[in-house]
Specification:
Layout lengths: L1 E10 L5 H12 L6 E4 L17 E10 L6 E13 L4 E11 L2 H10 L13 E5 L1 H11 L46 H10 L2 H5 L18 H19 L3 H10 L8 H12 L27 H12 L13 H8 L20 H4 L10 H25 L4 H7 L6 H19 L7 H30 L3 H6 L13 H19 L2 H23 L6 H14 L11 H12 L11 H23 L3 H14 L1
Parallel strand pairs: 1-3
Antiparallel strand pairs: 1-6, 2-5, 3-4, 4-5
Helix pairs in contact: 2-20, 4-7, 6-7, 6-12, 6-15, 7-10, 7-12, 8-18, 9-10, 10-12, 12-15, 12-17, 14-15, 18-21, 18-22, 19-21
Length: 627
């Protein structure tokens, strides 16, 4: 494709306009109708020598009216023209036709052409060459990229030969794209594990708060250290049950990669914005929950976002978006916590047409036992290290905790804890000196609770697994149709009781309330700033918005490279235009900008949720200074 662009001006009275319209109709209908734009036969024109015979050029034909004394653009055509030197004409193939809009105005401004001054006298064609103009027209007219999906057969591997019959195996692996060829002795779940730990989203968890801000000190848990603890607990359970350890670890390390900065307050704030509890999005009421509408927001929840990060946002390959993780890993990441299906739309977070089936979305529990292990390991980890952080921070004392543990229902665990106290006393009497007696006691206390819960899960789940029909597992496509990894009734009650203690003493504490309040202020402040002016967003996010809109419409304006005036108008339409006003805007306009607004909002959520705590704080301070 020659990078010179042919500009054609067409007055409303020009009969050649019909040729362009017929060409566009044939393109839409998939037909091959030949239409031409002829140059003057007996007239030397200033542009002829700039064109080469047989070459393809992009053309931009604009229909205008100047009856009022001012030029007014009515409609435009974009397409590909092949120049014929012998016939002094271009064969036109119109690929886009529209009444004047922001995209066309942006291209026209970028060309800097003036219909009165830049066309020679009595000429209607001009030639321009601009790298940025060419790239934008090429993006608008080019086919939307569709990644190829491959059929792969995954073989048995020796390392899995002795696993339990209900374990996931290499040959059961299912992926959206199946991008890479299988490798001998490198299992597919090992691939998932490696893709996750090499991802940017995984690395960012090192500076995302769990409950306490990392600014309190490096002792307190972050999303990274939490995920590592979950992986360790899950690995231990999977090993005892003889299930797939590699898959279990992959799910555990990836389960929180979609988490926001500032813990759960970050995700609550984003979800409140999307549900109009925090008033930022114009016409948010038009996007309210409606099962019949594709235009509603999908809400925000970190387990869904983990799937979105893994399947769409993380970039590791030229060929596809996302990491192409197995559906077994994605399902485990999604179902490590409650789905709340009435509040969230799965297709907002994963683009695969059959995602609901592949992720067994009809069930709240994971269809692979390895995913069920991670869900319960996540609970155990939270009970343990949230309590540890609480004791270490001084928000809760050891005596406070033991006062809670006086109820009869937890007497078995209380007895185990008393053994810890007795052991400390025993070694104190032997003159064993402790560098920090309280810290060591807290550590042994938490270890005892975690050990109790792990052993209970192993004992209870082993019995459930042995009683499950293996033939049913095989007939169901190597999936289970009920939760098998579980606490006993006693341990479930204790886990829930411990959660209540943490909520009462820690989550409701003034310190955590202040941290949550600050986090919510920063997240909502960033969202408002980015929504009001998307040009504040990172360039990568701007390009993703540009790309996402192009999948939907050719009327797309680059925030980065578009004409300033056109970009301002497009941003106004996307963010401020009152889409409920059917007298001001046509139904087509409203439909288009509903989708564009939704794309913008989702990308802002993606950008903010991907931030570390430190990055979010610094961005907020930077933006606050400019406002």
């Amino acid at each position: 494709m020659n990078k010179k662009i042919i500009f054609i001006k067409l007055k409303t009275t020009c009969d050649r306009i019909q040729h362009f319209k017929e060409s566009y109709e044939s393109f839409k209908n998939g037909e091959e109708i030949k239409r031409y734009y002829n140059f003057p036969k007996n007239q030397d024109t200033s542009y002829i020598n700039e064109l080469s015979g047989g070459e393809e050029y992009y053309f931009f034909a604009s229909v205008y009216d100047d009856k009022s004394g001012e030029i007014r653009f009515i409609e435009s055509f974009l397409g590909i023209g092949i120049y014929s030197k012998e016939n002094r004409s271009i064969r036109i193939n119109v690929k886009y036709y529209c009444k004047d809009n922001t995209m066309l105005r942006s291209l026209r401004k970028l060309s800097a052409l003036n219909l009165n001054k830049d066309f020679a006298e009595n000429e209607y064609v001009a030639i321009e060459e601009s790298k940025y103009l060419f790239e934008q027209i090429d993006f608008i007219l080019g086919e939307v990229y569709r990644p190829e999906q491959y059929n792969r057969k995954y073989e048995k591997i020796d390392s899995e030969s002795n696993l339990h019959p209900l374990a996931q195996r290499n040959e059961y692996c299912r992926r959206q794209y199946n991008l890479k060829e299988p490798q001998k002795n490198r299992g597919e779940f090992q691939r998932d594990y490696e893709r996750i730990i090499h991802s940017k989203a995984f690395r960012r968890m090192v500076d995302k708060a769990q409950v306490f801000s990392a600014s309190r000190g490096d002792y307190y848990r972050t999303r990274m250290t939490h995920s590592q603890v979950v992986a360790q607990i899950a690995r231990g359970i999977a090993s005892e049950l003889n299930l797939n350890i590699v898959l279990t670890e992959a799910i555990a390390l990836g389960h929180d990669i979609g988490h926001t900065p500032f813990g759960h307050q970050g995700e609550r704030t984003l979800n409140d914005i999307l549900n109009d509890k925090i008033k930022i999005i114009k016409n948010c009421e038009l996007f309210k929950k409606n099962e019949q509408s594709d235009e509603r927001f999908g809400g925000f929840k970190h387990n869904y976002q983990s799937v979105r990060v893994a399947s769409q946002l993380e970039e590791q390959y030229f060929e596809i978006e996302g990491m192409d993780l197995s559906y077994q890993t994605l399902e485990g990441m999604l179902k490590h916590t409650k789905l709340k299906k009435d509040q969230f739309k799965l297709d907002e977070f994963i683009s695969a047409d059959n995602a609901a089936d592949e992720l067994h979305f009809e069930n709240d529990f994971c269809s692979a036992l390895e995913g069920q292990i991670v869900a319960i390991a996540d609970e155990i980890a939270q009970r343990g290290h949230d309590l540890d952080d609480a004791l270490s921070s001084g928000i809760m004392s050891y005596d406070d905790f033991m006062d809670y543990m006086t109820i009869k229902k937890v007497k078995n665990l209380t007895y185990m804890i008393s053994e810890v106290v007795n052991k400390k006393k025993e070694f104190s009497e032997k003159h064993r000196e402790f560098s920090d007696e309280n810290e060591l006691t807290n550590s042994r206390l938490v270890s005892t609770i975690i050990k109790y819960l792990i052993n209970d899960v192993i004992f209870t789940s082993k019995e459930n697994i042995e009683n499950y029909d293996v033939y049913k597992f095989e007939n169901n496509g190597h999936t289970v149709d009920e939760p098998l990894i579980a606490f006993s009734d006693e341990a479930l009650m204790i886990s829930q009781f411990l959660e209540t203690i943490i909520t009462n003493k820690v989550i409701n504490s003034p310190e955590i309330a202040l941290f949550d309040n600050n986090g919510g202020t920063i997240v909502s402040g960033l969202f408002k700033a980015y929504y009001n002016d998307p040009r504040l967003l990172h360039k990568g996010t701007q390009r993703r918005i540009y790309s996402d809109i192009r999948r939907f419409t050719q009327n797309v304006v680059s925030f980065e490279l578009g004409n300033h005036e056109a970009v301002k108008k497009e941003i106004y339409n996307m963010t401020k235009a009152d889409l409920s006003d059917k007298t001001e805007y046509s139904s087509d306009f409203i439909k288009e900008y509903m989708v564009k607004r939704k794309i913008l909002v989702r990308n802002i959520c993606d950008f903010i949720s991907g931030m570390t705590d430190t990055y979010a704080i610094n961005e907020y301070k930077k933006i606050e200074k400019q406002l």
